[in-house]
Design a protein that fits this description.
Blueprint: H1 2-12, H2 19-31, E1 33-35, H3 36-43, H4 47-59, E2 63-70, E3 73-80, H5 82-95
Antiparallel strand pairs: 1-3, 2-3
Helix pairs in contact: 1-5
InterPro entries: WH-like_DNA-bd_sf, WH_DNA-bd_dom, WH_DNA-bd_sf
Pfam family, one: HTH_34
Protein name: Transcriptional regulator
């Protein structure tokens, strides 16, 4: 049954058990990347909370974070990785 596979997937990937993290990953799947400020606005979390969620996703290999120089100074940009792509595809397939 698909629901059992989805639950197992989320249990096996504990980093995705938090709805916010799964939501961030789903959003990045469609946008490919986002600025930290965009994620702040989308999630409505405070900076520290968002950064903690991003660190967990980054440490697990689902996203990559890079500081990119802009005219306003260095800004944090978040990119989905191949591993992140694969897990989102699996989640979406199970939700069909």
């Amino acid at each position: 049954m698909e629901i059992e596979r989805l639950i197992k997937l989320l249990k096996d990937n504990k980093e995705l058990n938090v709805g916010v993290r799964l939501g961030i990953l789903l959003g990045l799947y469609y946008t490919r990347s986002a600025w930290f400020k965009e994620l702040l606005e989308a999630t409505r979390l405070n900076k520290a909370e968002l950064y903690q969620h991003l660190k967990v996703l980054s440490k697990s290999g689902y996203i990559e974070m890079k500081y990119i120089p802009t005219v306003e100074g260095k800004r944090l940009k978040v990119f989905i990785t191949k591993k992140g792509d694969e897990v989102v595809k699996e989640v979406l397939e199970l939700l069909k």
